[in-house]
Amino acid sequence: MKTSMIALAFAAFATAGFAHASDAPATTGGQSGAAQVQQWNPSQTSAMQKTRAEVRHELVQAQQDGQLAQLSSLYRGS
Length: 78
Description:
Residues 1-21 form the signal peptide. The protein is mainly alpha-helical. 60% of the residues lie in helices and 0% in strands. The protein has helices at residues 2-19, 42-46, 52-65, 67-76. It starts with a helix and ends with a helix.
């Protein structure tokens, strides 16, 4: 009984793995109708990192503008 359950689980995981293994989506037609795939690139995100000073400055601005108070009231439900 356990052998058949293990075999069934393996088959389910194998088919799910094949479904997600595709590198590019299938397209119908020429290049003009092709969908663009955007993938995560660590070099792009590292260029957008902020320093602690920049984050603290944005926090102070948000407190002065009332943005933090507005968010707090949203999450409190009042």
